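User: Hi! I have a protein structure encoded as tokens and I'd like to know what sequence might fold into it. I'm fairly new to this, so please keep things simple.
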């Protein structure tokens, strides 16, 4: 069998159509019920043969990426190598197009991408359920980044059930220069909700998705972390209002924020919303996307 020297994968961003959050558990996590959708904004992860573990990150949203050992893709390579009892020898190169610390699972996408790319490079053929279990050890959103599409996440968001979803979703995302820390947003959620109800995705949302009725689904999009994110970042309310005034069917904070997500009726309306947001001067950047799309996909193998 010819040896593989390079694997390139693309890993999608996600948006939470619904994120319902329960009370803090004894392990420091919150039980959630969330409905994920992957969207066609991708980070590219390339894994190449090397004598050691190396990481290079480039792209629009890099900023200060912090120490490499804390990078989720780095940790994914280490974890997979440990699982397979081999050395984590790989050069990872990540081209980032997903906003960092924005609530769109950019770091999770990189980790999921690294798992798939390293698995192929090292010829491991790790069973899918083992990759999903490794993904869950690395972070709550990472199993979904692997799987993609539309899925319910329970537990910490890592226990996945695929749902039937018809219809195409046209999104506009408004990014902020400064990220928000997920733990900080969850802490603020605790302050605002001393006794939260058990999390439950609205039934009407699942029915509308199954029917491909995007306009009705829009009415049930919801995020329990939104008030907490808005408390920590006061400017979000003006951004959300601007999108609604420009015709968005729904406007909500994406995950733990601060990226705001706007659902548009069609591609043309999405352009209008993006222009209004950009003209407002309230947002750093707007990105348009459609969903759902597949999870991590191998693009090239050399
Ligand atoms: O799992 P992940 O590393 O993405 O989570 C980051 C942090 O966010 C956790 O350490 C925890 O503080 C918070 N979190 C939570 N409940 C969840 C997911 C994350 O409290 N369901």
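Assistant: Happy to help. Inverse folding works backwards from shape to sequence: for each of the 302 positions I chose a residue that suits the local structure. Here it is:
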């Amino acid at each position: 069998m010819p040896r593989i020297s390079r694997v390139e994968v693309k890993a999608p961003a996600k948006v939470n159509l619904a994120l319902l959050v329960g009370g803090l558990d004894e392990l420091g996590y919150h039980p959630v019920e969330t409905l994920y959708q992957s969207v066609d904004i991708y980070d590219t992860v390339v894994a190449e043969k090397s004598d050691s573990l190396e990481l290079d990150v480039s792209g629009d949203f890099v900023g200060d990426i912090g120490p490499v050992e804390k990078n989720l893709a780095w940790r994914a390579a280490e974890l997979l190598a440990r699982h397979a009892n081999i050395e984590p020898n790989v050069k990872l190169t990540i081209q980032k197009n997903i906003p960092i610390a924005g609530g769109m699972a950019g770091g999770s996408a990189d980790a999921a991408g690294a798992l798939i790319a390293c698995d192929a490079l090292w010829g491991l053929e790790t069973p899918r359920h083992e990759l999903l279990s490794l993904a869950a050890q690395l972070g709550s959103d990472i199993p979904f980044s692997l799987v993609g599409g539309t899925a319910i996440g329970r537990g910490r968001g890592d226990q996945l059930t695929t749902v039937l979803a018809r219809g195409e979703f046209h999104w506009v995302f408004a990014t902020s220069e400064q990220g928000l820390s997920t733990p900080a947003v969850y802490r603020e959620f605790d302050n605002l909700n001393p006794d939260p109800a058990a999390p439950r995705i609205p039934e009407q949302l699942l029915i509308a998705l199954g029917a491909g009725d995007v306009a009705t689904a829009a009415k049930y999009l919801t995020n329990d972390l939104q008030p907490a994110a808005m408390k920590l970042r006061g400017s979000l309310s003006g951004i959300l209002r601007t999108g609604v005034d420009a015709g968005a069917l729904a406007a909500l904070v994406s995950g733990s924020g601060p990226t705001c997500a706007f659902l548009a009726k069609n591609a043309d309306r999405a352009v209008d919303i993006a222009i209004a947001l950009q003209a407002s001067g309230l947002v750093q950047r707007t990105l348009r996307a459609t969903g759902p799309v597949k999870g991590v996909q191998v693009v090239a193998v050399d």
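A useful reference point when you look it over: The pocket of cytidine-5'-monophosphate is lined by residues 28-30, 32, 139-141, 156-157, 182-183, 186 (CB under 6 Å). Feel free to ask if any position seems puzzling.
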